[in-house]
Amino acid sequence: MKVGLLWFDDDPRKQLEEKVLRAATHYERKYGQPPDLCFVHPSTFNGNGKKGRLRANGVEIRPGRSILPDHFWLGISDK
């Protein structure tokens, strides 16, 4: 993914999947198509007791070392 939307959400009451779905909804409204990939800071997985890759309603969630905490980088994968 070379181009995407950077989203910030630091609400501690929301689960990771909920945050990604909110960001994905905004992405789809803005660009007219849903994202299929989201990169998050690796600590996001550790904080939720999850490892590796996750999915939230068709959006694959992967850890990305260059992503800041509480930030979400969404877009279309290069496949």
Keywords:
79 residues, 5-stranded mixed β-sheet, 2 helices, 27% strand
Verbal overview:
It contains two helices and five strands, in the order βαβαβββ. With 79 residues, it is α+β, with helices and mostly antiparallel strands. It has a five-stranded mixed sheet. The protein is globular, with a radius of gyration of 11 Å.
β-strand percent reads 25-35%
The percent range for helix content is 25-40%
Widest sheet, order of strands: 1-5-2-4-3
Assembly category? single chain
Written as H for each helix and E for each strand, in order along the chain, the element string is EHEHEEE
Alpha-beta content class = alpha+beta
Mean pLDDT reading: 90
Low-confidence stretches: none
Secondary structure: number of strands: 5
Shape: globular
Describe the main β-sheet briefly: 5 strands, mixed
Radius of gyration: 11 Å
Number of helices: 2
Distance between the termini: 9 Å
SSE layout and pairing:
Layout: E1 5-8, H1 16-31, E2 37-40, H2 42-47, E3 54-56, E4 59-63, E5 71-75
Parallel strand pairs: 2-4
Antiparallel strand pairs: 1-5, 2-5, 3-4
Task: Write a compact overview of the structure shown.
A five-stranded mixed beta sheet has the order 1-5-2-4-3. Helices cover 28% and strands 27% of the residues.
